[in-house]
Amino acid sequence: MSSMDKVYQIEATEGPRIIIPVKLIAxxxxxxxxxxxxxxxxxxxxxxxxxHFSAGTHNETLSKLLRINLTQRxxxxxxxxxxxxxxxxxxxxxxxxxxxxxxAQPFLVRTVxxxxxxxxxxxxxxxxxxxxxxxxxxxxxxxIAAIKLQFFPKWMRPVAQYFIPDFxxxxxxxxxxxxxxxxxIEERLRDSEAPGYEKPDDFIQWLLDALPEKQKRSFGLxxxxxxxxxxxxxxxxxxxxxxxVYDLATHQDMQExxxxxxxxVLEEGGSGRDGWHGKDSLxxxxxxxxxxxxxxxxxxxxxxxxxxxxxxxxLSDGTHLPAGTSLLAPLAGVSRDDRFxxxxxxxxxxxxxxxxxxxxxxxxxxxxxxxxxxxxxxNVGNRWQFTSIGDxxxxxxxxxxxxxxxxxxxxxxxxxxxxLVLHYDVxxxxxxxxxxxxxFMMTKSPSxxxxxxxxxxxx
Length: 459
Hints:
By secondary structure, this protein is an alpha+beta fold. It has one domain: CATH 1.10.630.10. About 50% of the residues lie in helices and about 10% in strands. The protein has 18 helices and 12 strands. The chain has helices at about 20-30, 40-45, 50, 60-70, 75-90, 105-120, 125, 130-150, 155-160, 165-190, 205-210, 220-250, 255-265, 285-300, 330-335, 350-365, 375-380, 405-425; strands spanning about 10, 15-20, 35, 100-105, 305-310, 315, 320, 325-330, 425, 440, 445, 450-455. β1 and β2 (about 15-20) form a beta hairpin. The longest helix has about 30 residues, at about 220-250. The radius of gyration is 23 Å and the shape is globular.
């Protein structure tokens, strides 16, 4: 039996972690929160007791707003996000009339921050440099503070936190966000009393409507929740899109494939019709979706399925998990396992597109040549989509704790990639390979310092 199929223990900075193989995930993923908790595991990993990185009782509210409100408005948001993308590209991307070296990662972090800010905080704040810096740096500061404090024994942490400067920076950032957000919320509360008032359609307003009356003027709370949203979305999404851009530069043959698809779907094959404004246009970028998932498969998270055992659990292989045990799944190992992905070490940008096509064909053949109904056809091959989740595909989590903002993240990434392939060629420097990732303990992220070459397309 492969070591990938066994339960084993590792020593992490946070303490011992039990690694659970894929074959046992099915026994765990449906357990209730009071038995196996994702919330407690994340709180423990980020030392929320000290960093205060937690939505607390508002966790479900944020999740619902992301899962329902934001996802349902994606097609309506796309034109506004494209406009924001064009703005930041004009401001911060080089001319690139000839091959020009450029650090893609810092630009993409700011781009994702701008696009996310446009949706979460509205256009007034999304172009505010202080808001952007605060929303980008908050997550990094929380992460660094937690890592530093983890090096102290638990009994020392209540005192040790006061000797770590990052713990002073965190509340200052929340206060900054509150100062910027307060006038906007106050104006909305004031205007809402006027007859015929039309509410803005953004996350500030959705959250305001979802909060109980007594918390609508809790500006610090709303600023804190906005920063948690930013922390959960900006760095994960910018890491994903940076890896995709590095893979575009490495596998140049994919650029024309994705360019042709983007031109056909978004620019209607040169007909002049604007597919960027079309309902579900981004969802029709099937080959790009496959490319994104393949990039995520090879360069995504090292681990997933972070859980803490709250009540003792006995697994079918005889493993006993006592209360207090912390669990992880070895995602990077699974993603490079030939049993799950044949030719797993090889980058194949159309791997999941072909699997979708095969599943579609099998479905049609099973129905006498045509799908039983429109909804059947629409759902065929969904398991191979970028946003799908499964026991061997846990980049977005699993079960009820799967990332509720993954559909928005997918839309952002497709928008950025489509814009880049339509307007630029990209390649690596002569003689260089794909930029190596930055590794820190069990986290991995694309190199922030790597330069790749861009050239504006002349056609």
